[in-house]
Amino acid sequence: MGETRLPRHMFLWCLSAIYMFAFASLYVQIPGLYGNEGVLPARWQLRVSGKSVVEQLKDSPTLLWFGPRLGLDTQQCMELLSLTGALLSLMTLALPVLRDCRVFLVLWILYLSLYQVGQVFLYFQWDNLLLEMGFLAILIAPMKMPWSTKERLHDNVTFWLARWLLFRLMFASGVVKLTSRCPTWWGLTALTYHYETQCIPTPLAWFAHQLPVWFQKLSVVGTFVIEIAVPFMFFSPIRRHRLAAFYMQVLIQVFIILSGNYNFFNILTITLCMSLLDDQHVNFWLRRYMPKTESTSLQTLCSWLAVVLEIGTYALLGYWSVRYFDLQVDWENKSISSRTAFTYFEFNGFLKTVTVPSIWIGVLSLTWEVISAMFKCACVRGVLWRLWNTIQWAVMAAATVSMFAISLVPYTYIEYDAHSNLWPGIRTAFEATDRYQLVSSYGLFRRMTGVGGRPEVVIEGSMDRNTWTEIEFMYKPGNVSAAPPVVAPHQPRLDWQMWFAALGPHTQSPWFSSLLHRLLQGKRDVIRLIQTDESQYPFSKQPPAYLRAHRYKYWFSKPKEDGSYPQRWWRRVYVEEFYPMVHLGDSYLEQMLDQHGLKDKAPPRRSSNAWLPQLLRHVGKHAREMPTPLLLWTLFSSAATVCLLNSLRSLARHHQHESLQNKHADKQETGWNVAEEEAKKHEEEDVKDDAEEDGKEQEEDATSEEEQEGEIEEEVNTEETDVDSLRKRKQF
Fold first, then answer.
1. Helix or strand (DSSP H, E) at 425
2. Range of weakest confidence among 139-153, 494-508, 691-705
3. Rounded to an integer, what distance in angstroms lies between the CA atom of residue 646 and that of residue 229?
4. pLDDT value at 159 more than 50
């Protein structure tokens, strides 16, 4: 796998946003859910037993044990932890310098502390997933030191854990749909019920529910392919396989986001999908084209082989889909028919065949990343730097292998033989770390509920037992004329538990008796869970004297015969009484509270007037006045704006730095050109000087020759004169 620096930054940025959503969403609900006068007071989970703080932390690892030392009760301490987590994650979202492993360690500890006392309202799979991803972020995020470098050679090793978690999540979610023997999943009709029976649908769910049955069944086939077959492509050595798997996983998550309010769960899954990307593809998104290098003949051959394998993989996926789901095109009706063409026992045989090999595929993939990182460390220059990188590699590789080993325990829950054959030492390690939620088992949408109609509990109140008024919740279906809301990434935890409560008798949901008790008492914090705007609550001025609950069955309304939309979103039918009529002091209500231990045995601790409790009350009063989804998106938009401005500023600085470098390079080129011209001028001048000197030498030589010739002529003339004088003397 190539470099993953940019995908890691995206992973940490998205996780910071999710932490902010989770902390802020929980913060506004703490008084009504866990307050001293809430549905399930958290102080009941922290009984004073005379143990030391260390022993208390071993029994329940939560920072809430330190609340009394700060002068805070359990509710105020929970508010402090959630508010601190929201602010810290908001700053981490906005400022890259805070995306450090120590910051993510603090965020993980804060959320784990809240999870330990969250009881039924925090026991959702996405809470476990957030804790596991949060712990992985501690290993993935850098530890920024003055002497640290930007490149950490072990990053691909720790980031691999996110890919393994994504595989476990998706593969298990696909497998449990079939191992549960749910007839809707085996009959490929699950989506014909899903859109109207999910907890809090969106308005688009109504339109998706109206799609033809053949398309709904084909969508189920696509779900099985994406969740069971495609995850094996996560570990493919072919880069385009991983990218194709990324887009298929993101596609199904986007469809779920559009049709249902699943808080931050789908964002968590998309964040895990970042582990399938590399820097090259992210640069392609950002239009940063990398320079192409010339490929050798061997590389060209390997690329063609990869293309053949890629096409063969897609062909196999298509062939298996057609064969095992009996896909046939009906040209007359313009549809595609499908059915499950295998049995439960055949699927169990398939599961036994692939579970253990899938583990070995993970082992081989992790081994490749570990060895690649080791060779990179061995190639570092400098003895000290090589030693430092090798130590980091050894520590992180050991941590990664340990996390992979203990994750095999919850992963193999899907297949009994593989689970029973695990090494006992791995089980022991898992049991020792289970309380910290380092790894968990997953399996979403195991069974499709509401096949005969969506069950829904409707609470009614009365002052005289004659006139009854329905108490409408902000988010869950109630009023048949109210449109489904869009609340993600906020999770209204009471509305979610109301959906679960409707699936069985009220005795399976003990907290429901406590809810009715608090409403009869008129507790404002609990009322705000139902309606933030208390004017919308029918008993805002005076609490009801009597309460009761009925079970209805809801269905989406159908379009009219002329194709126009109906005036109502829902239609409903009364089914039965869910909870009998009760009032304060009612014997049945008191019996239920006593049976489930929901009555206060001791009065709550008095609220302190110190500055910290007063500050918490002041912040909470103003924060809870705004609708929670609006609050979450406001915080996110603010942090994203700061992050965008920082990115633009750094980009401007980068361009400025590049321009300065270009100017400096131009100056250097200009200097070289001037120097070359001057050198040429000097050469020409030297040539001219040499020519002039040569001319002068030639003139001097010519002058000396003329002088020599003149001297010779003078000598000859002198000799001739002497000869003439001798001749004259002889004549006389």
1. helix 424-433
2. 691-705
3. 41
4. yes
CA distances from 395 to 125, 157, 164, 399 (A): 30, 11, 19, 6
The strand pair at 335-337 and 454-462 is best described as unpaired
Query: What residue type is assigned to position 477 of the chain?
Result: P
What sign has the CA pseudo-torsion 232, 237, 240, 246?
positive
Q: How many Å is the maximal CA-CA distance in the chain?
A: 189
pLDDT at 514: 95
- Residue 461's beta-bridge partner residues? 469, 547
Contacts of residue 448, defined as CB under 8 A and 6 or more positions apart, other chains included, come to 182, 184, 185, 190, 193, 194, 197
Residue type, 172: A
Burial of residue 17 (number of CB atoms within 10 Å: 0-12, 13-18, 19+): buried
Angle at 328 between CA 324 and CA 334, to 5 degrees: 145
Calpha distance 488→257 (Å, rounded): 8
Q: What residues have CB less than 8 Å from 325, skipping those under 6 apart? A: 188, 221, 224, 338, 339, 340, 341
Q: What pLDDT sits at residue 700?
A: 54
CB atoms within 10 A of CB 186: 19
pLDDT in tens, 467-519: 999 999 999 999 999 999 999 999 999 999 999 999 999 999 999 999 999 99
> What backbone torsions phi and psi does residue 461 show, to the nearest 5 degrees?
-125, 155
pLDDT at 28 over 90: yes
362 touches 404 (CB < 8 A): yes
Task: Taking the CA atoms of 8, 10, 16 and 19 in sequence, report the sign of the dihedral they define.
Answer: negative
- H-helix or E-strand spanning residue 410: helix 383-411
> 115 pLDDT exceeds 60?
yes
Q: Which of 402, 370, 376 is nearest to 152 (CA)?
A: 376
| Contact (Cβ atoms closer than 8 angstroms) between residue 193 and residue 208 | no
The secondary structure of 534-557 as a DSSP string is GGGSTTSSS--SEEEEEEEEEEE-
Residue in 107, 160, 170 with CA at minimum distance from that of residue 135: 107
List the end-to-end C-alpha distance of the chain, in Å, as a whole number. Answer: 128
Residue 41 has pLDDT above 90, yes or no: yes
| Mean pLDDT calculated for residue range 547-576 | 92
For residue 544, report the phi and psi dihedrals to the nearest 5 degrees.
-65, 150
725 has pLDDT over 50? no
- C-alpha–C-alpha distance, residues 337 and 215, integer Å: 9
CA distances from 45 to 108, 114, 559 (A): 20, 11, 50
